[in-house]
Amino acid sequence: MKVLVLNCGSSSLKFQLIETDEQKIARDEDVALARGIVDNIGSEAVLKVDLPSRGTTLRETAEVLDHKAAVSRALELLTRPEAGVLADPAEIGAVGHRVVHGGERFHASVLIDDEVLRAIESCFDIAPLHNPPNVKGYRAAREALPAAPQAAVFDTSFHQTLAPEAYLYGLPYVLYERHGIRRYGFHGTSHRYVSARLARHVGREGDPALRVVTCHLGNGCSITAIRGGRSVDTSMGFTPLEGLLMGTRSGDLDAAAALHVMRKEELGEREAQALLNKHSGLLGLSGVSNDMRALLEAEAQGNPRAKLAIDVFCYRLRKYVGAYAAALGGLDALAFAGGIGENAAAIRERALHGLEGLGLRVDPERNAAANGVEARISPEGAPVAVAVIPTNEELLIARDAYRLVAGLPLA
Ligand code: ADP
Q1: Quick one: average pLDDT of 253-280?
Q2: With a 6 A CB cut-off, is 390 part of the ligand 1 pocket?
Q3: Is 168 a domain residue?
Q4: Which atom of ligand 1 is closest in space to residue 296's alpha carbon?
Q5: What are phi and psi of 314, to 5 degrees?
Q6: Which residues, listed in sequence order, are joined to residue 47 by a DSSP beta bridge?
Q7: Residue 340 beta carbon below 6 angstroms from any ligand 1 atom
Q8: How does residue 53 score in pLDDT terms, banded at 50, 70 and 90?
Q9: Which is it for strands 333-337 and 385-388: parallel, antiparallel or unpaired?
Q10: How many domains does the chain fold into?
């Protein structure tokens, strides 16, 4: 089945066309036929489609005023003869949507009907930046592909297995009841994909006792403790702001410090949101960049603030690994994923430095050689298996959409 995977942001549409079915999944042969983006929706947009099997990329600019036009353009590009991946949009058997927030309602991916749509819309209040564009993408795809069933795959649903002691904040309970203030967690599709691959990598697929920690380190960063494939704790919270230091987000912070800064700097809510989400983290601390590659280069050239930002990043990560080993009562395996986790050997080594007492060791040669591919980086016989596991959220979205349409259980 050809599945169109859509990830709609406020001004961008990322899409992939993935061919998948049960045999292909079993053999890991389900692959992206095309990966594309329509960026800068609302004005002169940039369109790009990579075609892995042809080794080519189609690029152009066009006026794309809204998400509906973006989906039409994406389908138009995919059906061009020179793309060679789709003769007719009617070949698309399902559409899988990345939906950021499923609140407490969604514990797994679902096919979207009117009732599901209303439930996603009811999460607008707690995810005002993310869910509205996701719904725009759904409406656009439904119009363009009326015959294709559409599935919602939530960033939050994997973490709905958290126990109350892990998801509640120390606030008056009535605020949880009245406004849903709790830890939801995000990046769930990535943590679910990476933890399943890690379980397979260590030969313990389906083992209910397997204790793993997955570190998703991209522009946004989060870490999750997982027992037997079920999320036990995760670092992002009510919003994706909490937890690890990120490219431009502060991560953990005393709420009173934020209130103090708002008063001292005379910031309104919008400005405070921008400060914490867009101007903090690696960028805010270093004053150099939000990009780990640039920071590592600046550090190598002797920039002390770049070093400081990287030190805070690695220390915070190390602290969470220890906390999650405690939450799980021990650790069997740990995985690194995301742009930083998959490519930055130095960060992996620095983050786990000093955790030998927890059984976490990194083999310097294996670590240096593991770049962007699945690979074990702990030494042979180490108590905890440490691995690089490249994430692939789109693949999991396509598999979920296919299985929902085929009436198969979700893995
Ligand atoms: P997103 O969360 O937007 O999907 P990515 O997962 O692509 O982002 O991660 C982006 C981060 O990965 C950036 O900080 C980037 O510098 C970092 N990164 C990518 N490649 C490397 C590399 N070779 N070394 C260090 N950091 C890298």
Answers
A1: 97
A2: no
A3: no
A4: 25
A5: -70, -40
A6: 38, 60
A7: yes
A8: confident
A9: parallel
A10: 2
